[in-house]
Amino acid sequence: MRRPIATLTRDRARSVERTAVSRGRFRGRTLGEGTTAYLFLLPWFLGLVGLTLGPMVASLYISLTNFSLLSAPQWTGLTNYTQLFADPRYLQSLKVTFIYVFLSVPLKLALALLVAMILNTKVRGRGFYRAAFYLPSLLAGSVAIAVLWREIFSDNGLLNQVLGLFGLKNLPSWISTPHYALYTLVVLAVWEFGTPMIIFLAGLQQIPRDLYEAAAVDGAGRLHRLRNVTLPLLTPIIFFNLVMQIIGSFKTFTPAYIISGGTGGPNDSTLFYTLYLYVQGFTQFRMGYATAMAWVLMVIIAIFTAINFFGAKYWVYYEDKGS
Questions:
Q1: By the 8 A CB rule, do 164 and 171 touch?
Q2: What is the DSSP letter of 125?
Q3: What is the pLDDT of residues 4-46, one digit of tens each?
Q4: Given pLDDT bands bounded at 50, 70 and 90, which one contains residue 305?
Q5: CA neighbor of 199 nearest in space, from 134, 270, 280
Q6: Which residues, 6+ apart, have CB-to-CB distance to 111 below 8 Å?
Q7: 173: how many CB neighbours lie within 10 A of its CB?
Q8: How far apart are CA 132 and CA 307, in angstroms?
């Protein structure tokens, strides 16, 4: 028996009403959940605006002014940026920093990888060695280590005393000689290889042992396994360490400041970029000039990082993509 048309219409209206109510509740619940999520994210947004984006915009404005910290900023446009590349000491700081980065980063990564590979084997007491080799990285950038380094490479320092035992005399003060001062800081940077070593070690432990066993069955020697198994699978870790170490090297400050007494001497041979930035901003109170230096440094680091990411597709191997 067919139901009356009025009954069908009424049932359909009730069904539509129930659907509308259900959708309204779902939308209300979704809106409530979204509001809760934004409330939890609010501290992060406030930090982003107040501690990152806000200061960046303010520093960009200051870099376009003459600001001495003691008077109101005076707009000068791009004057600070044009003066940078006419400043001999600024160009010297660029030269010193580039030499430091190009020497310290490859040497540190090579040493870190070598030690990580040794500690990845069944070495007796390897837990102790891992902690011992990582310890310098915990002290990296500290004033105490910089002071210790200055004493080791001074005229009557530990290095000259040890070399004197082998009959070597009239040795220079390595830290006070322009030809050697920068290289002592390079050695200090290489000595602090613990952090990339730990990262390399973690990467080595993720390489399947089956690959080494298969290569050994095929007659591959150690060098062959290193070249065709270890290094290709470790390239993402090498890439990560390379980018992080380049960024960190460009920002090095404490060793040069302590060892040179804040002057970058002798003869500006240890005048790192960040040290000269500090001198301009907090010694000569040229805050606008120093802020312009900071922005140029950010651009330099961004360029090096972009180059690394662009070149990574030619040598970094990702197992999930096969390239």
A1: yes
A2: T
A3: 555 545 555 555 455 544 555 545 555 566 788 888 888 988 9
A4: very high
A5: 134
A6: 190, 193, 197
A7: 15
A8: 34
Q: CB count, 10 Å around CB of 250?
A: 20
Q: Are 261 and 175 in contact (CB under 8 A)?
A: no
Q: What is the spatial distance between Cα 134 and Cα 192, in angstroms, rounded to a whole number?
A: 8
Q: Is 168 left (phi over 0), alpha (psi -120 to 50) or beta?
A: beta
> What are phi and psi for residue 156, nearest 5 degrees?
-110, 30
The two tokens of residue 54 are 């806000």
Q: CB within 8 A of 61, min separation 6: which ones? A: 73
Q: From the CB of residue 23, how many other CB atoms can be counted at a distance below 10 Å?
A: 10
- Answer whether 108's CB lies under 8 Å from 196's CB: yes
Q: Give the type of residue at 280.
A: Q
Report residue 23 as tokens.
Answer: 């959708």
pLDDT attached to residue 2: 52
What is the pLDDT confidence band of residue 257, given thresholds at 50, 70 and 90?
Answer: very high
Q: How many residues does the chain have?
A: 323
